[in-house]
Amino acid sequence: xxxxxxxxxxxxxxxxxxxxxxxxxxxxxxxxxxxxxxxxxxxxxxxxxxxxxxxxxxxxxxxxxxxxxxxxxxxxxxxxxxxxxxxxxxxxxxxxxxxxxxxxxxxxxxxxxxxxxxxxxxxxxxxxxxxxxxxxxxxxxxxxxxxxxxxxxxxxxxxxx
Length: 161
Description:
This protein is an alpha+beta fold. It has one domain (18-149): Gyrase A, domain 2. The protein is built from 4 helices and 4 strands, in the order αββαββαα. It has helices at residues 9-12, 54-68, 97-114, 136-149, and strands at 22-30, 36-43, 75-80, 86-92. Strands 1-2-4-3 form a 4-stranded antiparallel beta sheet, with helices on one face. Helix 2 (54-68) crosses helix 4 (136-149). It is globular, with a radius of gyration of 16 Å.
């Protein structure tokens, strides 16, 4: 395949038209044995207007792994975007954007209301490749901001869950 034939979905998304926070189904891929893997855009801040500082993003990554996993069947991974405006969420099977947005809302509420430093997984040197770069305070502040704004299950129209 030639470089000019490569399509990268996130670079075709018009980042000036979306209205964060939102959940968006990016794609679904069917594996050779019939397994479905779904990729979601979990956008927490408005692109090109606000980004989450690295330490807060890192802590949110660890906490979403902890809090989203039991809320979404088939949870595989939740990895931060390099632009630090949100995450890619990968799951086996298919969930509606509405279901994922509800799970995200519940997970963020748990982070804000129930999580203490000792609850954050992977904060020791042997557990994390950059264990010094965490901020629970920052993670909670951005989680609060997202909850105050409301999470939409549509990237273009504010449909709050």
